[in-house]
Write the structure tokens for this entry.
Amino acid sequence: MGEPIMSRSPSIATLVLAALLAAALAAVGCASSKKVSTTPPPPPAPEQTQTESPPPPPPPSSDEQTEVKMSLGDAFFDFDDASLRADAKTVLENNARFLESHGSAKAVVEGHCDERGSVEYNLALGERRAKAAKEFLVSYGIAAVRLTTISYGKERPFDSGHDESSWAKNRRAHFVSK
Amino acid sequence: MDLNTNSSARGRVIPLLLLALALFGPAPVRSQTDVRIGIKASGTVKSPLYLARFRAEGGAQGVADEARGVVRRDFELSSVFAVADVDPLREKLTPDPSQTGSVRVEGLVEAAAAGMFRFTGEVFDLGTAESVFRRGYPFGPSDLRAVMHRFNDDVLEALTGERGIAETRIAFIRQDGRYKEVWVADYDGQNARQLTHDRSLALSPAWAPWGSEIAFTTFKRGNPDLYLFDQKRGASYPFSTRPGLNTAPCYSPDGKWIACTLSRDGNAEIYLISRDAQTARRLTRNERIDSSPSFSPTGREIVFTSDRSGSPQVYAMDTEGSNQRLLTLEGKYNDSPQWSPKGDKIVYASRHDAVFDVIVMDSNGQNPVQITYDAGHNENPRWSADGRKIYFSSSRLGKRQIFMMNPDGSDVVQLTQGEDTFNPAVGPRPRKQTTQPTSG
């Protein structure tokens, strides 16, 4: 048997770098070149105070200095919700700019959930999150054929903890280079 | 006592006899429902069962002791009996009306030729001192557990009118590093073995009514697809690999259909797919999530989860997709419903105060009763084949494990240990019982 799940999953370092780059893009306000060296910028301030949770700032990566191939940040969600928060839209706008400037790049949008609730419901919820993120990018002008979606529900948590700070990181639409 | 006297063909009259005794005798009776030995199936009130040490002939005492240990646990797990240990009879029983509703179980294991054994079990009503059940079971060393499970189920059928579940099996999902695989085990979690070895994500197992097949979701080709595992061949085959979700399978009672969740139309909707995969019927149509279908025992209705109101709630519909109606009127988050085998109840998981607990309600949505409390998250409730038990997963001790309890929440027993284990699925009873009556 193949291991598509394994082969698709990027390293944590890549995730962190992607998130950091998204933050950098937000700060600079322009698209970046494909190869970017990563000096960690400060994490972005939350756009607004969320009732459930603010987006978790990614932990700084000091031991990794690899180059980023695809700098698409994660969009985070509230519990049992697939609607795009303001901070998620900011991230997705940056992702859209990146995809715009890298016309050949294709991505898989993974929908993820926190550990609460059933396997089956969360698979459906994760799909709604992935599709919400994709639809935002498509409405921005990115060709739909460049983006495929898949839901892992709650089965591939980014953070294995059992509290809100972990859950907040796991409720996300995550982009993987295709 | 004499295990070799003829006492066959009595089992059918005993339930009525015991019913009369239970209703008019001193044994505790909660209400005049379907009571055979003075208790309700919930097991809140238990009937005393005195279990003698099994005798042995031909040097089989070790086997006899092992056999007794197996059926002792079966009797206890049934929640029908309160088991007490006694010595084998040396003298003939005498009637004791004050013991009406209590039974005594004796056993004999004889070593036979070619490494085979023969177990003979007998049950006495202590009120009348009459033998009320007696049967012989030949078995080989590897069949000991299976034979004692059958004896337990036979005794329960003879005394209560309904077979036990000791012969049934369960499936569940167990984590293995980054992977999740389907496992199967005996009804009590024993003899657990890994079924799939896909080194992927396997989820949501469901048993076919004929028992040899398990439907499940797997990501082994990258997408959440539905596969059918044939336990006779030890291999799985793709069943629905449509784009998007192929999840949450549930067989119809006649085995001709598999209800499931597909999202090929854009979002999660409930479908019926014929077992031969030739026909697919869409049952739900809305912009929100519809998932986790479960058939009523008649096959005429389906209970399911939908967040069409804004949060997940339990709904029911006719199998044609018509008459969709909200059932859960309490709670903001209700999911994973399953119809009881008798059709009168629905069990589901409800999120309240940031925890999940198991709820049982009437099948029309009335009278929800919370049956787990203050013990981590309790989810994935699934009825046993006889409806006397509810399997569920619980995080009460850390990682999720499979537990079993009575439908009133009593007698909680942990069945699995080790890695994260969830998604219990309950297999059917064996189709045909092949017990061998004792001819005397």
